[in-house]
């Protein structure tokens, strides 16, 4: 009973000054996550990112081989993804704006649609590049403090639960708990927690308007309006068959095996075969039919296969790794508003829009090559052991 009384006092200390109804409170963590998305979008539209898109992403060999070699089509894919992300952020801001006291902010929906369609910025929400950079620094600071608050609140909760379990606590425990509660209280004052909806939404609104203005400047209004259906993958792609992530993991597994074929045991080989889709199994059986009975002992052929697999992996592997990165950066299980995505990976740089038949042909080629290298390594090892046994 004494412990419960103490914990109640601690909680009262944290919320000694009750929040106004307009303060964001627990929604601060969702808002911090939203701010990271805005920062990421702004970075995706920077001069550096656009140059990378045009000079590296679109002409990348893996993209041109498996997705498309049509530059305009690929540019539309990139635009469609950016447009979708801007719209999703705007939708989240709209939900928050309904809780504002400022009538202009409550009309965000209509203002955003008007700015999208006609370019009219009635409230002058779009900022200059310099002002946007200053706003970004402010958001980054708020994100960092709110992230620290989240961590310290978790720590406080853990301490409280541990004390409840032991049902006894010393003066030292009281002091630690009190200090932790004071730290949480301090961080709430500095972070988004104690910020009003009006102040927060004002920042978000100005940011998304500036991002939309930047998009129009870079790509034009036509790209924003005409790309709504581009993100739906064609029927002949890995994305349409929901196999993009599975194939990405398969390619990464193959990449590791090709690097160290001598470490592949029979069990590992069987496990790999068990995860192959039926279409690849069938293709592989056709390629290996009639050659499995031959001894793999040609070092020149082994060198050729290693070279061929290296070339395939040079353009196929990045798409697989990008698929994993893209998925992880958007996974709810890995939600962390304190960490901006480390890359600006777009869907066109992944296996999502990859042609299924072409991707499977490349994977089959890797499997055939790996099969030969694996048998070659085993043959060379067996011969070496045989020679050693003769010496002994």
Automatic annotation (TrEMBL):
Pfam families: DUF3475, DUF668. Residues 26-82 form the DUF3475 domain. One of its GO terms (biological process) is positive regulation of growth. Residues 237-325 form the DUF668 domain. InterPro entries: DUF3475 (IPR021864), DUF668 (IPR007700). This is DUF668 domain-containing protein. It comes from Gossypium harknessii. The lineage of its organism: Eukaryota, Viridiplantae, Streptophyta, Embryophyta, Tracheophyta.
């Amino acid at each position: 009973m004494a412990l419960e009384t103490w914990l109640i006092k601690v909680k009262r200390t944290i919320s000694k000054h009750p929040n106004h109804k307009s303060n964001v409170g627990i929604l601060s963590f969702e808002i911090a996550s939203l701010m990271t998305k805005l920062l990421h979008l702004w970075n995706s539209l920077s001069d550096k990112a656009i140059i990378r898109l045009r000079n590296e992403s679109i002409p990348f060999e893996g993209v041109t081989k498996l997705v498309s070699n049509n530059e305009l089509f690929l540019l539309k894919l990139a635009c469609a993804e950016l447009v979708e992300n801007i719209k999703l952020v705007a939708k989240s801001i709209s939900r928050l704006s309904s809780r504002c006291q400022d009538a202009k902010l409550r009309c965000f929906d209509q203002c955003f649609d008007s700015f999208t369609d006609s370019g009219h910025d009635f409230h002058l929400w779009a900022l200059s590049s310099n002002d946007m950079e200053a706003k970004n620094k402010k958001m980054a600071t708020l994100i960092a403090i709110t992230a620290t608050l989240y961590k310290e609140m978790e720590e406080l909760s853990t301490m409280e639960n541990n004390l409840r379990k032991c049902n006894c606590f010393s003066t030292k425990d009281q002091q630690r708990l009190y200090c932790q509660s004071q730290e949480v209280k301090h961080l709430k004052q500095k972070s988004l927690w104690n910020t009003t909806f009006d102040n927060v939404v004002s920042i978000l609104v100005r940011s998304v308007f500036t991002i939309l203005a930047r998009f129009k400047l870079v790509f034009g209004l036509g790209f924003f309006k005409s790309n709504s259906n581009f993100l739906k993958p064609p029927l002949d792609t890995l994305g349409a068959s929901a196999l993009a992530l599975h194939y990405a993991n398969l390619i990464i597994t193959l990449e590791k095996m090709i690097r160290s074929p001598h470490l592949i045991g029979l069990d590992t080989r069987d496990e790999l075969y068990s995860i192959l889709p039926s279409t690849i199994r069938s293709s592989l059986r056709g390629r290996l039919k009639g050659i499995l009975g031959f001894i793999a002992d040609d070092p020149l052929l082994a060198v050729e296969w290693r070279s061929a697999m290296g070339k395939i992996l040079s353009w196929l592997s990045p798409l697989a790794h990008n698929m994993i990165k893209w998925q992880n950066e958007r996974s709810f299980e890995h939600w962390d508003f304190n960490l901006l995505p480390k890359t600006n990976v777009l869907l066109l740089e992944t296996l999502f829009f990859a042609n299924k038949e072409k991707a499977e042909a490349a994977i089959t080629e890797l499997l055939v090559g790996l099969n030969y290298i694996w048998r070659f390594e085993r043959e060379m090892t067996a011969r070496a052991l045989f020679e050693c046994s003769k010496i002994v």
